[in-house]
Specification:
The chain has helices spanning about 20-35, 60-70, 85-90, and strands at about 1-10, 40-45, 50-55, 75-80. The chain is globular. It has one domain (about 1-90): 2-Layer Sandwich (Alpha-Beta Plaits), CATH 3.30.70. Strands 2-3-1-4 form a four-stranded antiparallel beta sheet, with helices on one face. A hairpin with a 4-residue loop joins strand 2 and strand 3. By secondary structure, the chain is α+β, with helices and mostly antiparallel strands.
C-alpha cells in the first residue's frame, strides 16, 4: 500500500539551516523504514512553502507511523493512503 506523508512547518520552526540535524533525522528514518520493510518511494520538498512530501510503500500502517515519530516534532503532518492513477481508473471502469 502507498502512503503520502505531507509535512508542513512554520518558518520559525524551519530546520533548513540545521543540515546535520536534518541528515541525522532523515538517515534514522531511512534506517527504521528499511528495518520495518518499508520502502521510501520518493521524497520531495517545496522549500518556499516549508512543505515536505514523502511517499512510502508499506504493508502495515503502525510501523510506518513509528518511523515518522521524529518528524512530528518539526511541525504538522498528514499521512494519506493513496493509489496509483492506473488503479483508480481500473476501479471506476
Amino acid at each position: 500500500m502507498l502512503f503520502m506523508y505531507v509535512h508542513t512547518h512554520p518558518v520559525e520552526k524551519c530546520t533548513a539551516t540545521k543540515m546535520d540535524e536534518n541528515a541525522k533525522t532523515f538517515s534514522k528514518l531511512q534506517d527504521e523504514a528499511k528495518k520495518a520493510g518499508i520502502k521510501i518511494v520518493g521524497s520531495y520538498v517545496a522549500m518556499h512553502e516549508h512543505t515536505m512530501y514523502l511517499i512510502f510503500e508499506a504493508s502495515d500502517l503502525a510501523p510506518l507511523e513509528k518511523c515518522l515519530i521524529p518528524l512530528t516534532t518539526w511541525g504538522n503532518a498528514r499521512l494519506i493512503p493513496v493509489v496509483s492513477m492506473e488503479q483508480t481508473l481500473a476501479a471506476v471502469r
